[in-house]
Amino acid sequence: MNASSSSAFAPRDQNGALLNPWFIAITVALTTFMEVLDISIANVSLRHIAGDLSAGQDESTWVLTSYLVANAIVLPISGWLSSLMGRRRFYMLCVALFTASSLLCGIAPNLPMLILFRTLQGIGGGGLQPCSQAILADTFPPAKRGMAFAVYGITTVLAPAIGPTIGGWITDTFTWRWIFLINVPVGVLSLYLTTRLVFDPPHFARQRSELLARGFRIDYVGFALLSLGFGCLQIVLDKGQQEDWFDSHFILVMALIAGVALLVLPFWELRQRDPMVDVRLLGQRNFLVSNILIFMLGFILFGSTVLLPLFVQNLMGYSATEAGMVLSPGGFAVLCFMPLIGMMVSRVDVRHMITFGILCNALALYGMAQLDLQADYWSLASLRILQGVGLGFLFIPINTAAFADMPMVKSSNASAIINLSRNLGGSFGISLVQTWLTQGAQRHQAMLVANVDAFSLTTRQMLQDLTQAISSQGTPVGDALLKAQATLYAFVQQQASMLSFLDNFRHLAYLFLAFIPLVYLMKPSVRHH
Predict the structure, then answer these.
(1) What is the pTM of this model?
(2) What is the CATH number of domain 285-529?
(3) Torsion-angle region of 475 (φ positive above 0: left; ψ -120 to 50: alpha; else: beta)
(4) What is the CATH number assigned to the segment(s) 1-217?
């Protein structure tokens, strides 16, 4: 890389003084970690929130849905908003709104106010991830982007893994309000650092001046289609299982609105001079494949992060904190391996690194599909560590490949699209694995019950043994038989649930492997010297 090219990536303050790019990386990673953490940290506190605010469990889930819907609407238009307002100004507005709404969430007097403040928090949070990634892409030259995305990757992969653990500990030790209030000092620190370290690069400032000079038109129709499409889609994914999917009139209407809006959106945007979402970027082969792969990564990451804690809590008797400790080693594996992967990405073809990451994840998930209820902690944690290593070999190479041929002036738009793909993948993953889990348990229970009948010698022997054991504790024989039958039924339900969990792990493993051929549709990565 020549000197003139390198100078394009030399970040400077408003006086022209050079800035250390790693300070910038840490500054934007701080807010990204805070925002991604907030997506998962509230999940474990819903029961406490509902009880404290005198609300039902179903009502309290809107605390999650409101955030995700607002996030899904703002995220894809963050590139457009950056061009309109200036990326630094938009980023600081997002940090300020996220911080202020976190404070309001922490002091909310009732559930409707909490949902309103969570919506504002989702609006502020929606711009943080894409802005952070775009800032990193413009701050570091291509040869060093791997290490920069390693810092970013630590936040976006580690946060979902440790979020439930932190959320459970804060709720149990203090109160659920502190899961929001802890954002306030972090947000204030981030705002201070951003004012000192983050500035729009010259090429971005020139592009914005040119856009404003020729008249920047607001795409109202595109915004309406996008808001309806992604907003309704997020409601379908978040509420579908709870409302019994398309048996619910509400879910059916939301799905139809989402489907129509999202089908029309790309055709409308292609005709616009200043589109809300620059879908033309998907015409680049590497960027298109990267978006498909990052969707898959979000699907598997969030899907498996839901499955494993439920498995150990529902079937093995782990507490919420203990379940979090099963996930945490995988998060710390990411922390350890990300810098190494960041250095490798400029020396090794990213396609091979992505394939290795897929194989690690598939092997880990297939190992989870072989578990039983006697599995010890380290058997679970070691599989999660292997998965964590694999996630590192996916996140950095996929993002590096996505930005490899991307013009610098398009980095904000590209970042908005690829972050949307990951978040949508996560939403689909969480929603579908929960549905598969319920339906699989019902299917396995029907199969097992068919073999548990009065004519089975095994069944009669088990009932006899259970009845004798219960009777020996002083229970009358008639009551002991009823208790024995109830115990046997509970055992059947437990086994059916376990088989459903194992099926889900196996399905995710096979799904991962199916994406390997897609990886080699990418162009070979260029080696930087």
Answers:
(1) 0.77
(2) 1.20.1250.20
(3) beta
(4) 1.20.1250.20
